[in-house]
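Q: My labmate handed me this sequence with no annotations at all. I'd like to see what the chain might look like in three dimensions before we decide whether it's worth expressing. Could you predict it?
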Amino acid sequence: MVNRFERFSLLLFEILRYWHKLTAEEMKKYGLKGAHSIYLLTMLRYPDGITATQICECCVKDKADVSRMMTLLEKKGLVKKEGIHQNLYKGVFKLTEEGRKAALFVSQRASLAVDIAGKDLTDEQRKVLYEALEQIASNLRKLNKEGLPE
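A: Here is what I predict for the chain of 150 residues:
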């Protein structure tokens, strides 16, 4: 019999595996990897721009990852930096028109994938699922900071 930890872990890994495969396939159109999708989707929510620090918080990524991603997205012409250019953490990043189109494309494709993946769930089940996932993430975040109790 599969215990709770094993079932929980395997289900999460399976969901992530297939989600990453889908996003990778969709991002090929822009010469990007699936990991770039979260950055585009986050930036789409901030049409007036977003700082690198805010991106770190929203995407739950470290400074090095954000720096690499923003540099690549700038080179691809999807993002532009406004403000002080000498320092990554001053000024804001904004989507270019091409970046906005890419982000809208990714958003539509992600919505379609989520709709199909959850097609057999009722609205109530979906609500409970997201609330439960948010609570699990919050609890794991706290455990990560504080460590497991003895």
